[in-house]
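Appendix B, record 7
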Amino acid sequence: MTAPESAGPAESAGPAETVVDQPGPGTEPGRWPTALVTGASRGIGRAVALALAADGYDVAVTARTVREGDGPYGLPGSLESTTAEATALGARVVPVPLDLLDADRLVPAVEEALDAFGRLDVLVNNAIYVGPGGDAGFLDVSRAEIERRIYANLTAQLLLTQRAVRAMVDAGGGTVVGITSGAGTADPRGGPGTTGGWAVSYGCSKGGFHRMAGAIAAELGERGIRCFNVEPGPVATERVLARPDLRWVAEHGRTPESVGAVVAWLLRQPDGAVPNGDTVSVAAVAPALEAAARGDQR
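Structure tokens (predicted):
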């Protein structure tokens, strides 16, 4: 399976002008914003968690890999390492072990964050299913593989989000960000295992996931809920770089840190600056943020 970070860009809406100097959150005395970031042991999730920690958030982070060296395929990254890095940035960090396929852990994972922080201002849905069978063609993939992928990438996301949003509504509002994929909105250029290709079940799962933002915004926007997608485009994560067939992403894609910066920027925007339910393209926003970081903003 071509990794989700390498999917082609969606037809994403973004703000007409990228304003990089909005004030950060957490300015109210004694009230630091809180976020739950899923899939945060490495890659985009880790980068988002660290960007929010640097922006003044306390963060709860989930992942399957708890300790360094226990990750799939020998990849670096763990809950322990992300927790240590975010703590060094001044954040209060709550590590929450979570496998999206473990139905009995989904709601409790959100509740662990709520118990620790007392509220939840932001949920970033980044975790996806990573397992065997991703390179199988449509005629060869097993029923079990289809069910695992759809459950983890869609059903589990709905259940996590439902619990988080219920708490947000009770508290007066909150924001949900989904790390989406072009696989959910565009057709592949080939089958799984080819450049620009992905499994049918993956595209279907991400298509359903992509629709969450607009639907939740339409239903619950008047109750204080903001919900957005962030389309990362090709991203050179550890998992992508471990695959020889995806090395082209290292030359043409963005870093996980650029996605983290865009998510942090999005969360700093005042209500209405980005239409509720919209999709923000990293390719559209990151260049201005990177220019500002270099000090050459025009």
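Remarks on this record: The chain has one domain: 4-9+31-293. The two ends are 41 Å apart (CA to CA).
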